[in-house]
Specification:
The chain is built from eight helices and no strands. With 263 residues, the chain is mostly helical. Helix 2 crosses helix 4, helix 3 packs across helix 4 and helix 7 runs antiparallel to helix 8. The chain is elongated and about 90 Å long.
Length: 263
């Protein structure tokens, strides 16, 4: 049992290290990152509270028998409840630690850690619940766990824009939920439908899934770079302003000394 659990946790840990090292300006405190990860673990329970009544009412099917079932399960049984739960946990963290979200990249880092907390527990459940746990662990390490992390990066990107552009706060917070839900939903549709469609189409769907994840990686790398550049620009502007302030203060002191000297 130990090896499956370690195999399930490994991709989340690697993802956390990767995201932590993306913060080029001022890495976030480890204690708060662990808290964000823990909030992601809690989001598993929130997700279950959302999904349970939908399953009870038969809205989310118990078994996937058709492409339609895969779409319903992907969005109503996974993407919407999971991303909403993670968003709520991120907002709770933001409410309690608003001062820590003082750079563009910060919301990206914290959102990714929340997502990785969720992914770690979900991965453990999938891996230990499978007879062929090694195959499941490898497959999910390459696709599912990084997927959760990347949805978190996208969510954090828009939350950050909402914080630094308050005049469009509602717009960006809507995107912070909608875009990860769409990305997550499309991923799950491609993954789940491959098991209920013809062999040739299943291979095409899996190829599309791999292509989709690769494009998602490129997009997230780009937006992380964009936020780091924004932080570096803001830091340079703040340093320039401080230098100007010091220079003005020095000039004022010189003027005062000249004035007193004239007396």
């Amino acid at each position: 049992m130990l090896y499956p659990i370690l195999a399930a946790l490994a991709p989340a840990i690697i993802g956390a290290i990767y995201i932590y090292t993306r913060d080029k300006s001022a890495p976030e405190p480890a204690k708060l990152l662990l808290k964000a990860f823990g909030y992601g673990v809690v989001s598993i329970g929130v997700t279950m509270l959302i999904v349970a009544p939908l399953s009870y009412m038969g809205i989310v099917p118990d078994e996937i028998r058709s492409f339609g079932d895969s779409v319903t399960t992907s969005f109503l049984g996974a993407a919407i409840p999971e991303e909403v739960a993670k968003f709520l946990m991120l907002m709770l963290l933001l409410k309690k630690h608003r001062n820590e979200f003082d750079q563009y990249i910060d919301a990206v880092v914290y959102a990714a850690f929340v997502a990785l907390g969720f992914a770690a527990i979900e991965n453990i459940m999938y891996v230990i619940g499978s007879e062929d746990w090694t195959t499941v662990a490898v497959t999910r390490a390459l696709l599912a766990v990084p997927g959760h992390m990347l949805y978190g990066v996208i969510m954090g990107y828009y939350v950050s824009l909402a914080l630094f552009m308050p005049q469009r706060k509602g717009h960006y917070l809507t995107l912070a939920i909608a875009v990860p839900v769409l990305a997550h939903g499309f991923y799950d549709v491609m993954a789940l439908s491959s098991g209920v469609i013809d062999g040739g189409l299943a291979l095409v769907m899996m190829a599309l899934l791999i292509f989709f994840v690769s494009r998602l990686w490129k997009h997230c790398i780009k937006i992380i770079k964009r936020h780091n550049e924004a932080d570096q620009k803001a830091k340079a502007e703040a340093e320039a302003a401080e230098e100007e302030r010091k220079l003005d203060s020095a000039n004022n002191n010189i003027d005062k000394n000249d004035c007193y000297g004239g007396k």
